[in-house]
């Protein structure tokens, strides 16, 4: 099927990840690897890790029968650019190949749902202590960090510590991001 798609051809096939590691080289390197998760010897997850370390510019599209959240999320975290079920229609297959070849990603709806659910669960699992919550509420005002420190009866350095802890815990990079997080999670009302 791939050889019939304009602009695509098969460079080589491998029965498992270990065989892939023997066949791939800087001179024999595909742009895209279609990767099964369930393989003997070296499975798809280990192979994706190996590719990310040794050939980070090779794009990976997972071709699998698994659509359970754990496997999907593991592969997405490893940087795969696409995910297809083995029973995907040829047109979907072609779309995925074209998008990934153009530098985009291709995730069907079930992958997007897993990503959203995982993100929401991660956000719900973040526990903030009372001082972090107080700082977060005050960060949503026009107070400077010095004024926040005075109001909380702590040093500016302590306030900087609260801010940095929240940046790390919430994976946020700015005060604006903190305020948006607080509004979204109903910690601050407009």
Task: Give the secondary structure arrangement, pairings included.
Layout: H1 17-23, E1 32-35, H2 44-54, E2 59-64, H3 69-77, E3 82-85, H4 90-101, H5 109-125, H6 130-139, H7 145-152, H8 156-170, H9 175-184
Parallel strand pairs: 1-2, 2-3
Helix pairs in contact: 1-2, 6-8, 7-8
Q: Can you tag this structure with a few keywords?
A:
190 residues, mainly alpha, three-stranded parallel β-sheet, 3 strands, 52% helix
Tell me about this structure.
The protein has about 190 residues and is mainly alpha-helical. About 50% of the residues lie in helices and about 5% in strands. It is built from 9 helices and 3 strands, in the order αβαβαβαααααα. The chain has helices spanning about 15-25, 45-55, 70-75, 90-100, 110-125, 130-140, 145-150, 155-170, 175-185, and strands at about 30-35, 60-65, 80-85. A 3-stranded parallel sheet has the order 1-2-3, sandwiched between helices. Strand 1 (about 30-35), helix 2 and strand 2 (about 60-65) form a beta-alpha-beta unit. Helix 6 packs across helix 8 (about 155-170). It starts with 16 loop residues before the first helix and ends in a 6-residue tail after the last helix. The mean pLDDT is about 85.
What percent of the residues sit in helical stretches (DSSP H or I)? 40-55%
Taken from the alpha-carbon principal axes, the silhouette is elongated
Measured between the Cα atoms of the first and last residue, the distance is 56 Å
β-strand amount: 5-15%
Computed CA radius of gyration, to the nearest angstrom: 23 Å
Strand order of the largest sheet: 1-2-3
What can be said about the biggest beta sheet?
Answer: 3 strands, parallel
Q: Based on DSSP secondary structure assignment, what is the total number of beta strands? A: 3
């Amino acid at each position: 099927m791939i050889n019939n798609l304009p602009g695509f051809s098969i460079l080589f096939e491998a029965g498992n990840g270990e065989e892939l590691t023997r066949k791939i080289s800087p001179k024999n390197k595909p742009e895209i690897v279609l990767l099964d998760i369930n393989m003997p010897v070296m499975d798809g997850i280990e192979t994706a890790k190996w590719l990310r370390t040794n050939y980070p510019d090779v794009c990976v599209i997972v071709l699998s029968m698994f659509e359970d959240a754990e496997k999907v999320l593991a592969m997405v975290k490893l940087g795969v650019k696409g995910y297809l079920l083995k029973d995907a229609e040829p047109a979907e297959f072609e779309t995925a190949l074209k998008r990934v070849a153009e530098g985009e990603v291709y995730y069907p709806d079930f992958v997007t749902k897993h990503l959203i659910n995982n993100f929401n669960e991660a956000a719900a699992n973040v526990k903030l202590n009372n001082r972090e919550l107080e700082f977060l509420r005050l960060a949503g005002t026009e107070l400077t960090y010095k004024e926040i420190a005075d109001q909380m009866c702590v040093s500016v350095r302590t306030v900087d510590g609260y801010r940095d802890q929240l940046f790390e815990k919430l994976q946020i990079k700015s005060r604006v991001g903190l305020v948006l997080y607080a509004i979204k999670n109903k910690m601050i009302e407009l």
